[in-house]
């Protein structure tokens, strides 16, 4: 089959905003409460651990993206550097983890916007609106992402300003690990909060759609992660100092605690939360689509998907299939555990990225090898400290994926090295 190509239309700022949009919605509005439940007042330490792991992974992704310019992110890097099975593990882990994240983000959007009885229909409707945005071209995706990021940041800044202006400082912002969870709870919170940083993967998966990828992708990844890390630290300190870990752990919408009694600020926050969730979902759909396309090109997914639209230059068959899958998932499944499941898949994805970056030659090296070693070890450590339900489910789903590839190789007669 002749492979159709994506179009290089994105610059540094386009890729930067897609990465920030993918991270902001996933973290600020979804992850601090469950992280506080396991880490308590030591939440900020868990955030720093998650940020360090994300930095290791981001530098590995940037170094790999500077050498390999095709679509697929770590799926491509794993295949090129480590072999097809490692690439498949990365690609499968990314697709399943981020599909769960898409459903979660759509539900977060609906939870802030409509009553409970309407949440699933609205979540499904949002998925199809953003599938349509992606369908009609990646430049539209970047333009929409830019608007959504700015609206989300406005909501966050209003919430933080209102909280510090009207609330008394209570609990200390930083506490040492204590209680039955101890450092295990801190590591578990780091694994959960890592979910919030994984948006920069969407930049790497778009290596076939950016101009001058060797320069654009590393700059966009590092800049997006740096901005988001500062933002998350500001939100975490504010929540711990003004709300306290006990109240934070007991709510599903922690930022609303900063604007209690301020209707205008609450309205701005809700609009920001809706925009952030939509922006995260938009970025997630983009990243999954490009990884799925890359896997189809190598026959790790059905080759029927290995085409792009003749006009819009996007993987349009993948976009439609992903919309159908998400419709079924949202309609049938309660995804309150999606954060842990997604973290499991994404941490495995970045484990492969770190190992691949460590194997690159001197001529392609941009960062020291110890960062890749630290990233690989940290990814595996955070995987095993996730909630046990997430670990068990993740292991089972990854095993099914590996089995499917093995059966596919056997049926098609390809060798195990394919």
Automatic annotation (TrEMBL):
<keyword id="KW-1133">Transmembrane helix</keyword>
<feature type="transmembrane region" description="Helical">
    <location>
        <begin position="221"/>
        <end position="244"/>
    </location>
</feature>
<keyword id="KW-0812">Transmembrane</keyword>
<dbReference type="GO" id="GO:0005886">
    <property type="term" value="C:plasma membrane"/>
</dbReference>
<feature type="transmembrane region" description="Helical">
    <location>
        <begin position="89"/>
        <end position="112"/>
    </location>
</feature>
<feature type="transmembrane region" description="Helical">
    <location>
        <begin position="148"/>
        <end position="169"/>
    </location>
</feature>
<feature type="transmembrane region" description="Helical">
    <location>
        <begin position="181"/>
        <end position="200"/>
    </location>
</feature>
<feature type="transmembrane region" description="Helical">
    <location>
        <begin position="264"/>
        <end position="293"/>
    </location>
</feature>
<feature type="transmembrane region" description="Helical">
    <location>
        <begin position="314"/>
        <end position="333"/>
    </location>
</feature>
<protein>
    <submittedName>
        <fullName>APC family permease</fullName>
    </submittedName>
</protein>
<feature type="transmembrane region" description="Helical">
    <location>
        <begin position="118"/>
        <end position="136"/>
    </location>
</feature>
<dbReference type="InterPro" id="IPR002293">
    <property type="entry name" value="AA/rel_permease1"/>
</dbReference>
<feature type="transmembrane region" description="Helical">
    <location>
        <begin position="38"/>
        <end position="58"/>
    </location>
</feature>
<feature type="transmembrane region" description="Helical">
    <location>
        <begin position="369"/>
        <end position="388"/>
    </location>
</feature>
<dbReference type="Pfam" id="PF13520">
    <property type="entry name" value="AA_permease_2"/>
</dbReference>
<keyword id="KW-0472">Membrane</keyword>
<dbReference type="GO" id="GO:0022857">
    <property type="term" value="F:transmembrane transporter activity"/>
</dbReference>
<feature type="transmembrane region" description="Helical">
    <location>
        <begin position="339"/>
        <end position="357"/>
    </location>
</feature>
<dbReference type="InterPro" id="IPR050367">
    <property type="entry name" value="APC_superfamily"/>
</dbReference>
<feature type="transmembrane region" description="Helical">
    <location>
        <begin position="394"/>
        <end position="412"/>
    </location>
</feature>
<keyword id="KW-1003">Cell membrane</keyword>
<feature type="transmembrane region" description="Helical">
    <location>
        <begin position="12"/>
        <end position="32"/>
    </location>
</feature>
């Amino acid at each position: 089959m002749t492979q159709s190509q994506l179009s290089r239309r994105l610059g540094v700022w386009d890729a930067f905003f897609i990465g920030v949009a993918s991270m902001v919605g996933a973290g600020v509005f979804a992850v601090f409460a469950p992280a506080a439940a396991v880490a308590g007042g030591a939440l900020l330490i868990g955030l720093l651990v998650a940020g360090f792991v994300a930095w290791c992974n981001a530098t590995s992704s940037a170094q790999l993206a500077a050498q390999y310019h095709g679509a697929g992110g770590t799926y491509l890097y794993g295949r090129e550097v480590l072999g097809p099975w490692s690439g498949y593990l990365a690609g499968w882990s990314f697709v399943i983890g981020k599909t769960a994240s898409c459903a979660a983000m759509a539900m977060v959007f609906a939870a802030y916007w409509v009553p409970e009885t309407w949440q699933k229909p609205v979540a499904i409707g949002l998925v199809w609106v953003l599938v349509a945005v992606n369908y009609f071209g990646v430049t539209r995706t970047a333009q929409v992402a830019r608007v959504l990021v700015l609206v989300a940041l406005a909501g966050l800044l209003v919430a933080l300003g209102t909280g510090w202006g009207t609330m008394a400082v209570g609990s200390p912002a930083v506490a040492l690990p204590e209680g039955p969870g101890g450092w295990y709870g801190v590591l578990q919170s780091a694994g959960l909060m890592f979910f919030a940083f994984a948006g920069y993967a969407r930049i790497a998966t778009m290596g076939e759609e950016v101009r001058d990828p060797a320069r654009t992708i590393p700059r966009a990844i590092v800049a997006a992660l740096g901005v988001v890390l500062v933002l998350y630290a500001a939100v975490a300190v504010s929540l711990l100092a003004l709300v306290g870990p006990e109240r934070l752990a007991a709510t599903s919408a922690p930022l609303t605690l900063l604007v209690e009694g301020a209707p205008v600020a609450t309205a701005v926050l809700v609009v920001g939360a809706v925009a952030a969730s939509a922006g995260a979902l938009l970025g997630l759909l983009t990243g999954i689509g490009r990884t799925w396309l890359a896997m189809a090109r190598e026959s790790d997914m059905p080759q029927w998907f290995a085409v792009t639209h003749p006009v819009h230059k996007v993987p349009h068959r993948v976009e439609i299939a992903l919309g159908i899958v998400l419709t079924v998932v949202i309609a049938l499944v309660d995804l309150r555990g999606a954060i842990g499941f997604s973290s499991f898949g994404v941490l495995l994805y970045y484990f492969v990225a770190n190992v691949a970056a460590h194997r690159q030659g001197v001529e392609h090296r941009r960062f020291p090898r110890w960062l890749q070693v630290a990233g690989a070890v940290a990814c595996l450590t955070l995987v095993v400290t996730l909630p046990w339900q997430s670990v068990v489910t993740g292991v089972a789903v990854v095993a099914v994926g590996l089995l499917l590839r093995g059966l596919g190789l056997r049926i098609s007669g390809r060798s195990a090295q394919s």
